[in-house]
Structures are given as C-alpha cells and as structure tokens.
Specification:
With 220 residues, this protein is mostly helical. The chain is 43% helix and 4% strand. Helix 3 crosses helix 4 and helix 4 (125-146) packs antiparallel against helix 6 (170-182).
C-alpha cells in the first residue's frame, strides 16, 4: 500500500528565523513615516550664537550708522557760515601753535649751543608772516587732499568736496588753499550764497558739506 504524504510542512519552514524570500516568512513590521513625525526644532528657538555669522554681521555691522543720531538730519547738507568760521578758527590756532613751537625749538637750540651769549631770536614780522602763510597753505592742501577736511573741519563735522562729491585732488586743493589764505574775506560770501558757498568755492566749483563719517567713500 503506498505511503500517504504528511500534510504538515517540513519543520524548517515553520521553526526558526525564516530565510529571505521564503513564502512562509512573515512580512517585517514597519511603521509608516507619517506615523512618527520627525523631531524638529523651530528656527526661533535656535540660539543666536549658532546662526550663520553672515546674518549676524548684517544686523550688527551693516545696519548700524556711524553718524550720530543728532547729526543725521544735517548729514550731506551744505555747511553754514558759523560752522565754517569756527572750523577756520581752529585751523588758525593749529598753525599758529605750530609756528610758535618752531620758534621755541629754535630758541632752545640756540640756548644749548651757547648759554653764555644766548639771546632769543628776533625774526622780522615779514618772515614770521611768510612762514605762517606757507605752513597754512601746506597744511590745508594736504588735509583736503588726503581726507577732504582739516582738523577744524573734523571737529565741526565738515568736509570739502568737488563737483562729484569727492575730496579735491592735490592741484585743486593747493589752489583752494592759496585762495583761502590770501583772500580770507571770501568766506563771507556764504551768507548770501544759496548753496552756502564761499567766493573760493564759486570760482573753483567746490562745496563744504556736513559729513560725520570717519572716511569719505568714493566708490558707490
């Protein structure tokens, strides 16, 4: 009598871990991605120190104005007569102090050279005036060429600019310095000028504006 097959599957199909691709292997339990939301931290809760440095730089650097709040309404406007007179007075004092210091230095050298026959130098008034004039011209021309303003202009927040809003070049600064020193009364034309320009500025096409920025930016 032939043997009847056992309906029970072999034990290797029902016991132990099932092999990959086995018909009896149960599908692996999986959790849908939507059922477990990924943990996320809102952007607002991120500390400032961990944000990009470029963003912090724009907030703390580019957005801060160097002009004092009280001076912002006047920034870029033409300077008035009183401000320019005060700035010129400061420059006059600076150059006068430099000439006096030079005189004191010469006197000290003469004293050290021969103390027995020492006497204070007695230059003529013409020599002193010529020295003061030359020093004032060099001082103003150099200051206007380098930064567009002298020390007096710096204290009063003024700057000399040309037709394009840039500091004058060396030649223009030198001519303006000579004109200002030899014809100082030309400054009073500011009182009747619509653009607050002196006689020198009208002829040479310069202007004096309020500018408290540390340096003038020629580039846009």
């Amino acid at each position: 009598m032939p043997a009847v097959p056992d309906p029970t599957p072999p034990e290797r199909w029902t016991s132990g871990p099932a092999a990959s691709g086995s018909p009896a292997s149960a599908p692996a339990a999986s959790t849908p991605a939507a059922s477990t939301p990924a943990a996320s931290t809102p952007a607002a809760s991120t500390p400032a120190a961990s944000r990009p440095a470029r963003t912090l730089g724009r907030q703390a650097g580019d957005g801060v104005s160097v002009v004092p709040p009280e001076a912002r309404p006047f920034q870029g406007r033409y300077a008035g007569l009183v401000s320019r007179l005060l700035a010129n007075s400061v420059d006059f004092g600076v150059v006068t102090l430099a000439v006096a210091s030079g005189y004191a230095a010469v006197a000290a050298l003469r004293f050290l050279w021969n103390t027995r026959t020492f006497s204070f130098p007695a230059p003529s008034f013409g020599l002193l005036l010529l020295t003061w004039t030359g020093l004032m011209v060099v001082y103003l021309a150099a200051a206007w060429t380098v930064t567009g303003r002298s020390y007096g202009d710096h204290l009063l927040g003024l700057r000399v600019v040309g037709p394009r809003g840039r500091p004058p070049r060396a030649g223009g600064a030198l001519v303006r310095a000579v004109f200002c020193v030899l014809f100082p009364v030309g400054l009073f034309w500011v009182a009747v000028s619509r653009d607050n320009r002196s006689a020198q500025d009208v002829v040479l096409r310069f202007s004096v504006v309020y500018d408290w920025a540390p340096r003038h930016h020629d580039a846009p």
